[in-house]
Amino acid sequence: MKRLTISDIAERAGVSIGAVSFALNGRPGVSEATRQRILAIAAEMGWRPNAAARGLSESRAHTVGLVLARSADTLGVEPFFMKFIAGVESELALTRTALLLQVVPDHARSIEAVNDWWAERRVDGLIVMDLWARDARLPVLESMGLPAVLVGRPRPGGMPARWSAVWSDDAAAVTEAVDFLVGLGHRRIARVAGLPALEHTQVRTAAFHAAMERHGLSPVAVVDTDYTWAAGARATRELLAAADRPTAITYDNDVMATAGVSVARQLGVGVPQELSIVAGDDSQLCEMVFPTLTALSRDVQAYGVHTARTLVSLLDGGSPGSFQDTTARLVARESTGPNLI
Amino acid sequence: MKRLTISDIAERAGVSIGAVSFALNGRPGVSEATRQRILAIAAEMGWRPNAAARGLSESRAHTVGLVLARSADTLGVEPFFMKFIAGVESELALTRTALLLQVVPDHARSIEAVNDWWAERRVDGLIVMDLWARDARLPVLESMGLPAVLVGRPRPGGMPARWSAVWSDDAAAVTEAVDFLVGLGHRRIARVAGLPALEHTQVRTAAFHAAMERHGLSPVAVVDTDYTWAAGARATRELLAAADRPTAITYDNDVMATAGVSVARQLGVGVPQELSIVAGDDSQLCEMVFPTLTALSRDVQAYGVHTARTLVSLLDGGSPGSFQDTTARLVARESTGPNLI
DNA sequence: TGATCCGGACCGCAAATCTTA
DNA sequence: CTAAGATTTGCGGTCCGGATC
């Protein structure tokens, strides 16, 4: 099967390949009539520029990378990632940019993967998710000089030249949840946090403490976890077993909140009569359990769209920056109620 | 930042670029001593071949594509896809093959996406998931001449030259589930199926009928759905409202089985005392609900590994074929019990 | 003189051919 | 004649310097 190249188009149109290139890239140098003729022929023959040839010549891959550094199990249960990726994709498609994906278990392998991509010039830029407070990937990525968008807060010490950040105000969201619970009369509130190494976990925990303090309250407890159902269940069991048990618990994702509901039922603790529960992520899962879960909800797909747009703009020479996405807002469902104790 | 090229290596080693190319690709033409010297220098300088240049020269992208043709919501809730992708990835990494991903809502756009990839020679081959019984993508893909691996049964009429298939015996799995339920004394069994257009839905439904018939039973009902929680809930409500209601229901995925449990509880139907429930997919979700769900379980990640391996072998000139993966086996948990009615 | 178009030099690698000892 | 290595060509585009009308 002979492949179609630019010279086939040139031949059919009776022009040089240079003219075809100009016509197709919308640059001056060919008359409008010729341009239209070339475009028509290319479309008719179904010709598309060879990505490798173009990439070689332009020194640009028209591809960006996304590395997910988590175990497949964790990724699978959290709908967040698929929604985010779908958003990223839909935006990238507009600029004919492809998405390269890697799923690896840890940061070391994540660095390896990105290093390979960049050394081989397979990607022009990177989307970095799941930022850690002290993230081993960042200095390495910076030294590689690879353009990137961080999904999360930019680092306080200033960012490398070709890095942007897209973030959401986690502190505000946590504050809203606390205010909501306090408004319902709760005073003994606990927090089941996510991975303590993650940047946004620390931000949320700090915001939790601040919000409680503002209400003149002190947290019953803040328990760190690894986001799994088992960890959520264990944390809940401990919290409910204590003498001064909480009347409300916030969880850093929906999976653990579900575990909380399950443990409460086993222990005969009524939700929401004796215990109110707030999930930190929203998904179909929150409406699948009984009672349905009050959750901090946001448009994750749009988050992906904005992230992709920010990266593409950066690669097109746009100026880097830090862009704030919408803040999650609380969606009240059945798992929260007034404090009756 | 000057980029490292093969000629930098050649210069440092004091040989021609041809010699470097031969040395790095393990082909004859250089002495062993020179080869080692070149290899050492390349490794020391951290050189990696430019993917575009290599791709252009070899007419091979060292990249494969995977298109997910479903809504982001559906994908997010089903852990299957992320696990599968993680498996695919881990295998592709071994041969330095990259994975291009697309998430699109329907088959029409899926065809577009693949057509673009192939026309631009961005991919060497494709992984095709979620096969339909009459799949509009297949004839188009075949006419494009793109090598592919079908995840699912090969078509009865014979396969294109450079297509393979990796499949799992859905019929056997469904049969095991029916046998298990019948063994528990159930005689009124219903099936809540997935998307009727999907190949494996039809295979499973046929196997369900056959298994029931073998036991001298006739199904209470087979209800088609779209895999969503809402559809699972609606189907369950209808089944339980009927005069001759089933004592056991099998669902084509875990999300719908969860919906089934939820609806049963709302209607005051005890699980498993009055109703046994079997989930067609296994995931953490099955252990997150109460009661935990008996499910048809399999190693999805390994499925992804095998699929990737099959595609890579095909691209390397291996002979195409149809390869059977392991069959899902039933894992009994709390949602099934003896028929007490 | 200027708009329009041609020819050809690259991009970085693989691989075939040519040269040298 | 053979092994080791140098030279050259081609992959399919982009884009610059010139030539033409």
Keywords:
homodimer; about 350 residues; alpha/beta; 434 Repressor (Amino-terminal Domain); Rossmann fold; 3 domains; 6-stranded parallel β-sheet; 6-stranded mixed β-sheet; 14 helices; 12 strands; DNA-binding; transcription cis-regulatory region binding (chains A, B); transcription regulation (chains A, B); DNA-binding (chains A, B); DNA-binding transcription factor activity (chains A, B); Lambda_DNA-bd_dom_sf (chains A, B)
Give structural notes.
The structure is a homodimer of 341-residue chains. The first copy, chain A, is built from 14 helices and twelve strands. With 341 residues, the first copy, chain A, is α/β, with parallel strands linked by helices. Chain A has three domains: 6-49, Orthogonal Bundle (434 Repressor (Amino-terminal Domain)), CATH 1.10.260; 63-169 and 300-324, Response regulator (Rossmann fold, 3-Layer(aba) Sandwich), CATH 3.40.50.2300; 170-297, Response regulator (Rossmann fold), CATH 3.40.50. The termini of chain A are far apart. The mean pLDDT of chain A is 93. At the A-B interface, α4, α5, α6, β2 and α7 of A face α4, α5, α6, β2 and α7 of B. The structure holds a DNA duplex (21 and 21 nucleotides).
